[in-house]
Amino acid sequence: MTSYSNVPLAVLDLSPIRTGRPAAEALENTVALARATEAYGYRRFWISEHHNTPAMASSATSIIIGQVAAATERIKVGAGGIMLPNHAPYVVAEQFGTLAAYHPDRIDLGLGRAPGTDPWTTRALRREHASGADFPEQVAELRGYLAPGSAQRKVRAIPGEGSGVPVYILGSSTFGAALAAREGLPFVFASHFSPDQLIPALELYRAGFRPSATLAKPYAIVAANAVVAGTDTEAVRIFSSLQQKFLTHFRGGMEFLPPVDDIDTLWAPQEAQMVNGMLAESFVGTPDTVRRGLEGLVDRTGADELMILSEAWDFDARLRSYELLAKAWNL
């Protein structure tokens, strides 16, 4: 029988910007959330990378990681993730080597291949069109800069070289699963917005895993949405803000809006089907309700760790959601 209390919980933060509010507030909340979730007992705190998105302030990911790590003491802080095709691997190695120098044994580096933005911003970021097809080569290059080196090497990441910053492969399909398996790296699946390939990706990862100097056996982290409140009704209302974010995205924008009492008054049936499909791995309700749902997720996936995204328009409600879940999970 699975001992669920042995499955660690982690936090995924998007630095959500409430519509009509400044990005500075979102960034302040990210630091406050990290402090709180460290006290609640969460294992790690990861920040995403998104660009040109009015609903999210998490664009300069490495800078936010530095602020969060400086404001906390023990919790591991990292990128969930760095969208590597947007960056020169060498610069990423220097940035995370610097973070690791400031905060030894606390910095994680999750790597993804999606741009995290629209085609126009993708071109602005990269200065050229790229599909992410060379993502495995970029990962290898980056890991080479982080590995122990020598004075004879022509290009060295200093800081970065020999830093031992742990690398995780992120994915929402089987592509990342295959790469993580081949390289013997931990794998993180983004089922909080792309649940359809969750089981196939994990099966492929475990079946193809090759032990490495980094990792002796597969380690899978599963990301999911969770909103916990005193009553199911209250939690459902809080969750409507995340549903509206996806709804506005399907309509051509993206806004983080106040909760509503009845989300069904805002969308057409086809829109509801699309949003609820993307948010299928969401657990909403009282502590007992959400705990049972997450226990079921662990049973279905064999997850070694769960990474929780809990978004709420009201920041106190967001803090409370993470606190109630921590208590229910016996962190």
UniProtKB/TrEMBL annotation:
Family matches, as Pfam families: Bac_luciferase
Protein known as = LLM class flavin-dependent oxidoreductase
The record's similarity note reads: To bacterial alkanal monooxygenase alpha and beta chains.
List each copy of the Luciferase-like domain by range: 11-304
Q: Which species?
A: Streptomyces yaizuensis
